[in-house]
Each structure stands twice: as structure tokens, then as C-alpha cells.
Amino acid sequence: MFFPMPFNDEQVRVVQLLECSDGVVVQGPPGTGKTHTIGNIICHYLALGKRVLVTSMKDPALVILQDKLPAEIRPLAISLLTSEQEGMKQFMYAVEKIAAEVQRLDKLSLSREITQIENSIDAYHAKLVKIDNQIGEWAGKNLTPIELDGEILKPLEAAEIVIRNEQTASWLEDAISIGTEFRPRFSDSGIVRLRDARRALLNDLDYLGVTLPLISAFPDARELIRAHQDLARAAELQSQVDSGKVTPLADSSKQTFDAAQSLLSQISNLKLLYQFIQNNDDLNAALNYPDAQLTDSVHDPGQAWNVLTVGAYTELDEIRDSTLNGFNPIACSGGLSPFTTTSLTWENRWPIKPEIVMEGGNLAHDGQGFYDEGDDLSLLSTYRDPATSYFYSFNITSASTALAAWLASRIQKEYPDIWPETIRALMVHSAE
Q: How many angstroms from the chain centroid is the CA of residue 229?
């Protein structure tokens, strides 16, 4: 049916009757859509390449019908019942319209478009047939009795049961049926026991089937701290890479990581040397251990007689950092730190400096001129910016002085009434 305007089954029936009859009579009172139906029938037969003659006793009826036609079809309808001049004017307009359309006509393109439209129509017809079949299937399901747990129920009765028990039932998204293979394999009492067990376990249910490690299997605190620092540093680096402050690595291959690690070791060594260069005596003491500790004098202002001079020793001589393979500690455990000097070269009548020594860290070397402080050979303290890292390694006499201040504060807390000079005396005379 080639109806450009809305239609109903009665209009379709008219065309079907015209296909097998010489004539059809359509009756109805005014306003029931007879003119609308005639307009659809005219368009249908024009689309099939046929000519349609419409007759009427009066001109107004033809004018109304012509106005009902779609704008694209209206120029093809010629009214010959008006004045001869008006009729010829409409006839000439129709001829010119048809001639213009014929000149612009692309038969091949229109043929392809017609074929596509016909295929689309056929597809919609097939879809309608499929929908009709599905509706029929659902109608059958809603009328066919079902057996559930040995009881015969009408679909309407089953739906009413579900609605009445809506609070105790919910939809299952799985594709299941009422077959025996989908029947529950547990009882109500089993569900109650399972619920009680779930309430007892609470969040511990996450550990079901998980074997907890022994305390002895955990790494020591220093390794955990190093892992935490590595993770914090990795997060910080990723943030800097995302913001464009740091250039990302070319790739994630082992060769690239090894090259980056080697470069990091060299940069660390250069930083350490730069720190030493700030004070040439520190550089000399570290690189000429242990002779420099005996021949180099205490640095300014530690030589003052009226101050408590704090030196550094170390018990850190174990290197577990895999990036420092081939490195060895300079000082042995219990020896002077490479970062300290003494007053051994002073005259005997002068005071002995330093008066006390505290842990100041150690230094590693590879025997080829490279040095590294390393976390294993440094002390641990809190970092100034917790958002970046919780902990930070430090050494040299800053570390030993911090430990001496901590010891003095403990004495002050224990004996709040004693003089600072007394605290100093207790620290010096209690040194081993």
C-alpha cells in the first residue's frame, strides 16, 4: 500500500476490493474521512503508474479533494470542471511540472532507492511477523497451566502469588526455568544456618580460604620502611610524570631500569661529593678513613672549650640494598664514623674532643672511587612533608647531635631541677 497519509484497515479493505471488483461503494456521513480515503487511493494508484479520474457533481468537492493531496502530488491533479482558462492554466502547469521532473529524473538512482525501500518494507514485514509470533508465544505461556513442585497452577494464579509475596521474593537475572535441574539443593534450615554464620564472620569472610603468614615470615621493620618509601616515591614520581615535571622512561625493559639505577647511583655519589666539597675537611675525612679521623682537627665551632662537642661513631655495617651490590662499608661496627674527626693532634693540655660520640651513620664504597651513603648505613627519622613520605634517612654529625639532644632531653625530663652543666657532666662521664 502506497498511502502517504494516515490510514486504517477500512481504507486498506477498499483497495483490496478494487483489485478484484469493478467498483466499490463507500458510504458515510460528512466528516468520517471519505475525502481522506479518496486522497490515499489516488496516491496509491498514481504510485503504481495508473491514471485516476475523479468526478463530482460540484466543483467545491474537487477543490477540497485536491487540497487534501500531498504537496508533491497536487501538481499532477488537473481540474477540468472550472473555467476553460483556469483549466488550461492547471493543465499547462502540470505539463511543465512533469517535464521538469522527467529532465531531473535519474532512473538508475531512483531504481536503487526503490529497491532499498522495498527491501526495508520487506524487513519491516518480517519484523512484524516475528513480533506477532512472539505475542502468540507469550499468549500461549499466559494460558498454559504450569507445574511447580508437583502443583498445577494457572499463570494468572502464579502471578498473583508473586505479587502477594513481593516483599519476600526478588527477580533473578539468570536464565532459569522451573525444570528439575533448577530446583533448590538446600533447605530453609540450611539458609538459616548460613545466614547465622555470615553474621558471625562479618568482614572476616574475606579471609575465607586464605592462609595467614607467620610473624617470622614478615620482613623486618627496615625492609618494610624501605618498601613504604619506594611506594611513596613511586607515587610522587608518577604524579610528576602526569604533570609533565618529569620525563617518563622510554620503556619498562630491564635494560632501561638497570641504566636508570646506574645513573641514580652516580647522581647520589655526585650529591654526596658535593656535600663534602662544601667542607673540604669532611671530604678528606671520608675519603682517607681512618687516618683522617686521627690527623684532621675538630671542625669549627666544635673546637670551643666551653661547648659539648658531639662526634659520630657507627654500628651500621650491613648493606642489604641490592642496588649497592659490590659496595662495602668504610667503617667497621663500633668504629668512628667516616664523617667525624678528633682532637688527637692537639696539645695534651687542651681538652679532648669530641667529649661523646653518637650514631652518625656509615659510608659505602666500591673500591673504584664511587661512594654512597645508602639507607642501610643511615639513620631513620620522620620526613618534613608527610604527603610525600613518612620517613627520611639522614646521617653525619647532624644525626649524632640529634641523638645527643634526645639523650639530654630524657635526662632533663627525669631530673627537671638540675642545671644544664650537670646534664652535660652526666652525659660526658657516662660515656664508655
A: 25
Helix residue ranges per DSSP H, 177-306: 188-201, 221-243, 254-277, 280-287, 291-295
Boundary residue ending a domain (75, 110, 145): 110
> Which of 110, 142, 160 finishes a domain?
110
CA distance 168 to 142: 23
Mean pLDDT over the full length of the chain: 82
Predicted confidence band of residue 416 (pLDDT cuts 50, 70, 90):
very high
Look up residue 72 and give its three cell numbers. 508533491
What percent of the chain clears pLDDT 70, i.e. is strictly above it? 92
Q: Round to whole Å and give the CA distance between 312 and 295.
A: 16
- Report the alpha-carbon angle 407-412-417, nearest 5: 160
Domain span at residue 31 reads: 9-110
Decide: 292 and 284 in contact? Cβ < 8 Å. yes
In sequence order, the β-bridge partners of residue 359 are: 313
pLDDT in tens, 313-365: 999 999 988 878 888 999 999 999 988 888 888 888 888 899 999 999 998 88
Does 255 lie in the same domain as 106? no
Residue 75 lies in a domain: yes
- Which of 236, 217, 215 minimizes the C-alpha distance to 390? 236
Residue that is written with C-alpha cell 486498506 in the block? 12
Domain count of the chain?
A: 2
Q: For residue 230, tell me if it sits in a domain.
A: no
Whole-Å CA distances, 163 to 53, 167, 169 = 62, 9, 9
Which helix (H) or strand (E) segment holds residue 371: the answer is strand 371-372
Is residue 235 in a domain? Answer: no
- Are 339 and 361 in contact, with CB atoms under 8 Å apart? yes
Cβ count near 292 (within 10 Å):
20
Nearest to 289 by CA among 260, 328, 250: 328
- Whether 139 maps to a domain, the answer reads no
Count of helices and strands (H, E) across the chain: 13, 10
pLDDT tens string 271-289: 666 665 555 455 556 667 8
All cell numbers assigned to 309: 662537642
pLDDT tens figures, 185-217: 888 898 899 889 888 888 888 888 888 788 888
Percent of the chain residues topping a pLDDT of 90: 16
**What pLDDT, on the 0 to 100 scale, is given for residue 84?**
61
Of 334, 336, 374, nearest in space to 354 by CA:
336
